[in-house]
Amino acid sequence: MTQPHQPHQGDEAGKPRLGVGMVGYAFMGAAHSQGWRTAGRVFDLPLNPVLAAVCGRDAGAVRAMADRHGWAAAETDWRALIARDDVDLVDICTPGDSHAEIALAALAAGKHVLCEKPLANTVEEAEAMAAAAAAARERGQLAMVGFNYRRVPATALARRMVAEDRIGALRHVRVTYLQDWLVDPEAPLTWRLRKELAGSGALGDLGAHIVDLAQYLAGEPVVGVSALTETFVRERPLPAGASSGLTNPGGSEGRGAVTVDDAALFTGRFASGAIASFEATRFATGRKNSLRIELNGERGSLAFDLERLNELSYHDATEPDAHAGFRRILVTEPDHPYLEAWWPPGHGLGYEHTFVHQARDLVHAVASGTVPEPSFADGLQVQRVLAAVEESAGRNSVYTPVAPVDPLAPAAPTTPITV
Ligand SMILES: NC(=O)c1ccc[n+]([C@@H]2O[C@H](COP(=O)([O-])OP(=O)(O)OC[C@H]3O[C@@H](n4cnc5c(N)ncnc54)[C@H](O)[C@@H]3O)[C@@H](O)[C@H]2O)c1
């Protein structure tokens, strides 16, 4: 076990350097590269994130990605990336089957960790990761999960408004995450459709996001669920080579069994008595990346739609009925979360900015030694909800409690990053 890696001192920006090493270089690799590259140029950060090295298994492809996205070095073995002296923080952008192994090795090597969602493929892996993160926290290392939808300014504003008691006692959370890239039965059997690589299907991919977002906005965990899951197309063409993303550029070779869910539908309870409905599917024809969430409280409601991500809808039920109603808040004002550093009011942001905000928040957390949210304990809690959904779906939708996450390190409170 090595000591926590100390940021290198005094780079050209006069700030301590935070060397980032990223594993995986496709979709999330590109999105995280954008985040790391941009965060320090937009926000005044206490450390200077440096794109030290990126890792993938194909030497030529990873070198090309490094050149395109501005990574100084390329590695083909993630263990070598972790061992590099110029890497202080390991950013995991690989499929779920490798999250636990890479994160545990990085924490053991004294590095900070950012891990894409879902935290792991099983509750057992997530428990090991949360325990390792809690132990590492005692040594000054931090670990965060990449639930980036918390970092849309409008969702962060919704959280702020719930915390300010703008909607009163919460009654309902209604959330859907709809995509349609599997509607074609000839769409290839990529890693996302194989349980041993992805853990689960729409549930772990899209469901993990909406469980985290619902809990974040509600400010409390889901304590039980009742669920249905379905796999509509059970056999698909196998990609000829290693698959990445959603497509099959190398053609196909025979057919294989789909071993994950195509869709998951579940209801849930919060401890406060509020109830929630969740829907995650890759079969919602015409819906590309449609994440919608609505919260109804005793004194108001909030609604967000990722396809209109610069807007938040708010109904204040304390206003006279004669002119009350949902109003559109254009979330582009400098006192809205994250927007103090961006463009003048009305000049909107997009999907990629969530990764810039993620990098910004993690850099602040590392500099201040504050535990970032969502922590690995938060990731474990989501994993337990996903497991309860699978258990319920396998038992005719019987209501299944979610085991609470024990406070693994009571000495270190999790303090939300101020935005
Ligand atoms: N936050 C989000 O909005 C979001 C969106 C998509 C995916 N994700 C998550 O990000 C992770 C990656 O998904 P993606 O869409 O980028 O997948 P992808 O298929 O586009 O890329 C996966 C990358 O991992 C690499 N890889 C796989 N195994 C590896 C290994 N052992 N060593 C080194 N590299 C390896 C592949 O070569 C590829 O570069 C998953 O956990 C996924 O759930 C998050």
Automatic annotation (TrEMBL):
List the GO molecular function terms. nucleotide binding; oxidoreductase activity
Cross-referenced InterPro entries, in alphabetical order? Answer: Gfo/Idh/MocA-like_OxRdtase_N (IPR000683), Gfo/Idh/MocA_oxidrdct_glycsds (IPR050463), GFO_IDH_MocA-like_dom (IPR055170), NAD(P)-bd_dom_sf (IPR036291)
Alphabetized UniProt keyword annotations: Oxidoreductase
Q: Which domain of life is it from?
A: Bacteria
Q: Where is the Gfo/Idh/MocA-like oxidoreductase N-terminal domain?
A: 19-146
Transmembrane regions listed in the UniProt entry: none
**Annotated ranges, domain GFO/IDH/MocA-like oxidoreductase:** 157-302
On whether Lipid biosynthesis is a keyword of this UniProt record, the answer is no
Designated name of the protein:
Oxidoreductase
Q: Organism, per UniProt?
A: Streptomyces ruber
Q: What is the lineage of its organism?
A: Bacteria, Bacillati, Actinomycetota, Actinomycetes, Kitasatosporales
